[in-house]
Amino acid sequence: MAHAEPLIRNISDTALLAAVYRERETERQDALFRDPFARRLAGKRGDQIAYSIPFSNRNTWAWVTRTYLYDEFIAEQVQQGVDMVVNLAAGLDTRPYRMALPTALQWTEVDLPGIFSYKEEILAGEKPVCALERVRLDLSDAPARRELFAQLGRRAAKSLIITEGLIIYFSTHEVRAFAEDLAAPPTFQRWIVDLVSPGLLRLLQKNMDPSLSQSGSSLKFGPAEGPEFFAPYGWKPVDVRSPLKTAARFKRLSFGMRLLSLLPQSNGRQGSRPWSGICLFAKR
Ligand SMILES: C[S@@+](CC[C@H](N)C(=O)[O-])C[C@H]1O[C@@H](n2cnc3c(N)ncnc32)[C@H](O)[C@@H]1O
């Protein structure tokens, strides 16, 4: 008997989910950003995946503010002289098409082959605003990623690395090795990471893992140390922005979440408190 294909077939299908929330934001009158490609990229499967995870649907603010805060950090870093952006696990992100960026900016996207073939089919005929290239690579292949990082490192004076929605899928051991590899090229100067506390990780595991784990995309990483986790591996946190506070500022929260957002911001150890931060790191 043939088995029905799971809705989330593999880890790259989580990129469809991210695109759905960018599409929904784009359709709002008061959109915090607009991604004119998100509708096409998310497709019907993206919608089906989103509707199959009610917890995620109820917390759209978390996806939207993540994108908003990454956009904000990227724009600031480019303004401050970054000449290369390396988007690791870029998925269906379209920043090189939708953001106001210098034409000379080098932008490298890295992800698995399948998702890039899908993306390129849909974006064929669209023109990025900066110098975009795509590299098909499994980032868990340590020697291959080191080789890529070294090559990219030689081509820039100051690079910004972004890993939006990636490291939560890595084990602690994998994140450690990944952070060390990223710290190796001298020109890799800044890194943006979205981070959750152990308390939020547990909440996400309870509510999202039943859908994700069938495709081998379990949520694993939420360090007790918070952003300071990265210090021994070459990266010091220089700015941490709160998705929750950002969502409160733009009136995107339910009453209960609004109350939670009134608690003072803290970026250290959170214990069991649900916490997330979009963190900008600088090379130590
Ligand atoms: C939640 S999506 C985020 C995509 C994009 N950064 C965004 O925010 O829209 C996770 C992405 O990580 C990619 N990914 C996961 N593991 C990977 C690996 N070992 N190598 C390369 N890409 C990987 C998936 O293919 C997927 O595109």
Protein architecture, described:
With 284 residues, the chain is an alpha/beta fold. 43% of the residues lie in helices and 16% in strands. The chain has eleven helices and seven strands. Strands 3-2-1-4-5-7-6 form a seven-stranded mixed sheet. Helix 4 (60-79) packs across helix 10 (243-249). It is globular, with a radius of gyration of 18 Å. Bound molecules: S-adenosylmethionine. S-adenosylmethionine binds next to helix 1.
Extract low-pLDDT stretches.
none
Shape: globular
**Helix/strand/pairing category:** alpha/beta
Mean pLDDT: 95
* SSE order: HHHHEHEHEHEHEHEHHE
Topology:
Layout: H1 14-26, H2 38-51, H3 54-58, H4 60-79, E1 84-88, H5 95-98, E2 106-111, H6 113-123, E3 131-136, H7 142-154, E4 159-163, H8 172-183, E5 188-196, H9 198-212, E6 235-241, H10 243-249, H11 255-261, E7 276-283
Parallel strand pairs: 1-2, 1-4, 2-3, 4-5
Antiparallel strand pairs: 5-7, 6-7
Helix pairs in contact: 1-2, 1-4, 4-10, 7-8
The protein binds S-adenosylmethionine (SAM).
Which tags fit this structure?
single chain; 284 residues; alpha/beta; 7-stranded mixed β-sheet; 11 helices; 7 strands; globular; binds S-adenosylmethionine
Could you give a quick summary of the protein structure above?
With 284 residues, this protein is of the alpha/beta class. It has helices at residues 14-26, 38-51, 54-58, 60-79, 95-98, 113-123, 142-154, 172-183, 198-212, 243-249, 255-261, and strands at 84-88, 106-111, 131-136, 159-163, 188-196, 235-241, 276-283.
